[in-house]
Structure formats: C-alpha cells, structure tokens
Write a structure and sequence with these properties.
Number of strands: 57
Oligomer: single chain
Number of helices: 9
Distance between the termini: 56 Å
Shape: globular
Low-confidence stretches: 104-118
Strand content: 25-35%
Structural class: mainly beta
Radius of gyration: 34 Å
Helix content: 10-25%
Length: 868
Amino acid sequence: MSGKGKLNTRLYFNRLARTFDLDAPRQNGTPGRINTAWTTNLGPTFANLAHAPTVAEVGRPVTVTVDASDPDAVASMTLWYSVNGDAWQNVSMTLAPPAEASAAVLDGTGEEHLVTAPAWARYRGMVPGQAAGSVVQFYVEAADGAGAQSTFPGGGRDSRALWAVRDAPSSSSALHEFRMLMTPADRTRLHAPTNTLSNELLGATIVEDEREVYYNCGVRLKGSFVGRNVARVGFHVQFNEDNLFRGVHRVVSVDRAMHTAIGNIGELLVKQIACHAGGIPDMHDDVARCLAPVASYSGVVLLRVSGFDNDYLDAQFDHGAGGSLFEVEVLRWNNATVDGNPLSPKQVGNESGGTGYANLELQNYGESAENYRWFFLLVNNRTADDFSGAIAVSKMFGLNGTPVITQAAQVLDLDEWLRTMAYAQLVGMADAYFTGANIHNFRVYIRPDDHKALFMPWDWDSAFQASASASIFGSGNIAKLLNFPHQRRLYLNQLFDLINSTFNTAYMGRWTAHYGAVGQQDFTAYLNYIGARASFVLGQLPTAAAFAIGSNSGNDFTTNTATVTLTGSAPISVRTIELNGVAYAPTWTGNTNWSLVVPLFFGTNALTLQGVDYAGRRLSNAVDSIQIINTGPLALLPVVINEWMADNAGPGGLADGADGLFQDWFELFNPNPVAVNLGGLYLTDRLASPNKWAIPTNTIISGRGFLLVWADGNPEQNAANAGVDADLHAPFQLSGDGEAIGLFAADGVTPLSTVTFGAQIQNVSQGRFPDGDTNAVFAMTNFTPRAANTLAGLGEVRVLRVIQSGPVLELQWNAIAGRSYRVEFKDDWASEEWTALTDPLRATGPSLTVQDPALPDGPRFYRVLLLR
C-alpha cells in the first residue's frame, strides 16, 4: 500500500466528515535489500515516440517512429493500433535507414544528448489510412534477445497515444488550435452523469497547432459542483513531467464561457485590468480554438496556462510554493437520486437546481481543521494539511469592533486586500464574495515570508454583470475592513487609482478592440460598462477636496513640545504625504481628513507637505507649507539605515560572528548624542508590510553609535539583553538584485528611515556619507560595518616588517579591520604560478602577521592580496 498518510471518511457530500492520520512505518523502502520493483530484465527501453502527420488525412497512411535500445539487442518491434475502439490490429516495425538511426534522447533532466547506434536504433511502422473523424489509439511492443517484452507508452492498451483523421479542412484562424483526442469509450465516460463530478483523470492526447503532440495526458471536467453537467463545462488537462505543455506547464485549464455565455472570452479583459493596474494577483491566459472530445463543445476558449499554481507562486514569492493556498467555496449537495431510491446513484445537479446549498461566512468555527476544510479547500501542500492560516483569517473576520482591524494588521496584507476588493467592485463581480451574495470564487494564499494572507481573484467570469451604479461598498464580514476611517480612505484611494490608471475607456478601448478581434467577438458592451461604472464610482469619491494644513487654520504657530500633530485635508488622489521630502504614511481620520505626528527641532521649523499618489508621483495641486516655532525640548532625530550589503560573500566579505556564514547585512546609525531604545520599532524588507518584524525589547543603540543587523532569516540567534549596539538577526534576507529596507515607528505605519536599492556588486556596500546624510547614496569598496562610513579606497597594502629567524620568516602588513587577506609565494620569479601560504586571514586590527616556517635554501618571493 502507498499514498498519503491521511484518510478521509464521510457520508455523501461532506456529512459527518473527518480526516484521520494513518499509522505509517517509520522506515520506508527496502534498505539493505533488493527493491520491490527490481526485475531481472525490463525488456527494451524507448524514446521519442512520434507519428506523422500529426493530424492524418482521410485514407492516407500514418507513419509511427520510435527509438529503442536493449543490452540483449532488440529482437522484434510491433506496432499495435485500434480504430475507434474496435479490435486491435498490428503491423511489424522495421529499422529506419541508417541516417535516422541516431536518436536525440531526453535524459530525464530535460536536457537532450545524442546517443548513436547500436545503443539506440530507430524503428518505423505504417498504419493504413482511415475514414474521416476516426480516432486511432496505438502503442509499440518490443522483445529483446532474451525474450523479455515491454511496451511504450508503458500502459500498452491502457495508455492513450492517439491521432485523429481530419474530418474538416484545417482552420485558417490565427488562433492557436488545442485538439483534445480521446477514445469513444473515454469521451462517453467523461460526460456520463455518474462521472461528471469525478476528478479522476482519463487518458487523452493533446495536439497544439497540428505540430506539438502530447501523448498520454490526463483529462477531467472542470467546473463547480453545478458547472460540470451543463453546456458551458470546461476541461482540466494534466501533462506528463517529461513533456510539459510548451515546455513549462503541468496543468492547463480550458475555460469555455464567460459565466453562462458559451464561447465568450470576456474574462480576459478582467485579467488585463489586473495585470496592467498592478498590485493584484493575476494569471496568464491564452486564447485558442479548442477541438473538444465531443464536437458540440468545440469553439473559442480561454487556455489558463498559468493559474495560481506552485509554479506561479514560486515565481511571485520567495519559496512561494511553500505557502498554503485555499479556494473558498460554498457547500452543495445533491437532493435526489435517479429513481427516488435513496440507495441509487444521485441525480446530478446543475445551475437550475437539484442541489442543496450552504453559504458559510468567514468567521470563528473553532480550532479544529475539520470545521474549515470543506469550504476552505486546500489546493496545494495537501500532505502538510496546514489549516492554521485559514483558521486565523476566519477567526479575524469573526471579530467585531476595533479588534478586527488590530488583528487584520497581523493576519492580512491589508493593502493587497483593499486593492483587490476595489478591483472587484469596479469590474462588477455578480457572483463572488464582497460584491455578491455568495461567499465563494476567491482564493486565500498564506505568504511564506511573513505568513500574511493575500486575497486572490478566482473564477471571476461573472464580471460586468453587477449594475454599473451598484454601491461601491460590498457585503459580508470582509466589508468590516471598511468600517474604519483609515482603511476606508485607503480603499477609496485604490478605486481612484484603478480608474485613472486602467479602468477607463481610454486605456481599455484598445484592449476590447484587440481581444474582440482575436476572439471574433464584440466587446462594445463591456467597454460601455467600464465607462459607465468608472463615471459612477468617480462621482462617489471626494475628488474636489483641497490639500491644506488645518492646524491653527493653516497659520504659523508656536509650541513648546518636541512633537506636534498636524491635521489637514486632501483629495482622494493623495495616498501618502512627504514632509520636507521624507515620505510619511498619514493616519486618515476621514475620507478627506488626515493627521500626522511631526518631530520638531528647537527654534523655527519650516515644514513643506507634499501629497503623493499611489504610483509615487508628487501632485502639483497637493502642496502646503507652515512654520512652527519650538520653544521647548528638541525631538530626537530618527535612527537611519546607514549602510547595507546584499551580496556578501566569503572570503572577502563580512562573516557573521554567530555562525561564521557570509550573509546579508545592514547597519543602523543613531544621529543623536544620546542612546535610543529601538525595542518595539519595526524592520522590514517589504515597504508595503511595514510591521513585518518587531525589534526585540531593550535593543539599545548608543549615542552617535552603530548597530549591525544581519538579514539572515535567523532571529533565533538574537540573544536576550545582549547589550548596547549588539548585532541583531532579522527574519528576512535581502536580494542582490535589489529591493528595499525600512525602519518604521512603533505604530507600524510611520517610516523612520527607508532605502530602495538596485542590483548589488559582490562585497561592495552602499550607504550614507557622511553618516546619517539621507541626501545621497554611495558605493563603498571599503565597507565599514559598526563604524563610520568612508569614501576612501582600500588603500595600498604595505609590508611593515620582515623578520627572519633561522628557517622561519615573519611578515607583517597594514590591514583594515574586518577584511580578509591571503599571503602567496613562489620560489621562481619567472613562474606564473603562486602558492597560498595560509588560508585567508581576517584582520581584527590595523595590521596582520603571518609566519612561513619552512624557508628554502634559495630565494622566495611573497605577495599579500586583499580579498574583495
């Protein structure tokens, strides 16, 4: 027995369902013994099975070729075939001409290499021509010199290598052609009422554009509980690992309808909006003409070649496939059997009825995963069976009042949720959570690096169906996020940005015309909807509010405090505010009102506030200034991210004293003359998630001091009460290709210091000069962690002292603390080769000393290298 270590037991459709962990042996396999799959003789092995032409012509023969090899020689090769499921027939295969006898063989890693005869030989056989529309199933069978037989594909008659005989002229369409071939018995079973809800994969061959052939794929119906026994049903196609679709994709989904509009590819417009607007999870679709196993299901389709699968997640997020992905769906069940007898097969439901229905809200259902798994469907990592993220999200939405938003900041990527919610409202989703009555058609993904949940659009083919004048605020527990002024304002700003950047007729007119031409459809109605919806939503937004400082009616004033809270107003186009060129995240107290805590120097503080939009553009109509005189104490200056190295490598880089590894690091600088307690502040490498990691309590940086932070993903290396200026270890890493670092205040919102950097050079740091000066960034080959930055070069290595005592020579040279050096020698000056005297040496002070204990009788030449 093999499989997963979990057993699910339930009555029909989730009633009394429970999942149990099965006892499994601690030691799997057969260590010390012959494997259970071992055999004395496998028979011949095969590669490069093919048929030509890919789509047969009526009455014309088809040639099948295959490469074969065996240590005992290939004694015979037979081609077996069956036409439309009729009796099997066979023809002998013969050796191809010598020019074809070499085979390009896939070695299992995806790389090709040439193997020449006699190791491999090519065989060919010919099947007679057949009638129009016929489907021919085939496989090859070989025997070696010892009599052992084998087949390819390995399942023989149970495999599905197929070709079709053309029953119509080839299409002149510019669309890709996606032909799905199944035997008559398989295609009948695929659509049988007792099979529609099965996820069992039935065998098929896929042919793309009459060129690329994918044998022995798996096909099942795709759709919801009520969407598989209807005319708009789609298909799920799974390809083999050794022959992925277009060389990349394991799974492709064939989507045949825009909601109930069969052949409509309008959902592609919805995805175009998300892709262009940014900040919204999106997927990759293509348009094709599908030739389905049942001819009535053929037509123009969307091919979802990259959905929210593991390949997508790995491409978008660090270790993305390691995060749990859930599809949220309503519960349905059949209400009747085919003949009224409770023991008979269930009568398959469809969109018009015949099913029971339970619409489960996101709320607290307790601690057991069993209470969530039937509507939070775990899409990936099923063996791990980790529902902690789903439970955390559900419990959070079950709260009321202030705890909702407090917990949401810890559980959700709030900005991403608000943007996706705004997107859903604009595109008029009629059958999805928040915009419609049904709590389904979305996915929740738990991002691995910070364990925060993302809201992911899924199956949004009911777009453009809600009224263009529908409310811009939705329903359900998810709408609780908008009950708070700050989040409500951010949501409105998302609506404004989406409309101005993408969701408008000026931008979408091109794409409705393009996709309409490609799919031979008229998308004018969708473009009209976009125009009407955008106009209505803009009318609901406070676009006319002035950008103004409201404190003291905008007039200059005097205070005796180190900080002051400024208030004011701003139009909906403003997302953040810059104070004297430094970005701040204001607290929004209403749809147009903001407040900002501002530190003050002693004396006159000239403050200029600049409104910035979602894309980071400074708005010309959003500027105001004020002067505030501080007669009281001086506010502390913020600690600054002073130096960073995101490509730190040994031996020339900086080694972490905790484990000796060469890992990313950055340095904090305290510009104040007094020590500052960093405990409770936040560090992040994702500015959109400012509260990613809270600095441990009692983390002290001395006055004018430096504190080194290792971005090594090892926070467990932080020592309790480590002392002033002690190194920190953050739970994230930096990218040598460029990213960001942020230090945020204890409110998890206000930025104290942020940097965004591009691609790095190995063992070259970047940082501020002079220390704390945020006006410029410099590259520094002479990196100075825990010390003042310098733009001086590394300088020359100068030998300070040479002392010889008998056969021992001692060599001393100037050095830079923290840098590594290597001493090399050669005994023949004419030689080009140098020999290392020692392993790399790391300097801890201004000089280094090394000894050569075995001087030769003749001369010896030395050189000292600074390792970069």
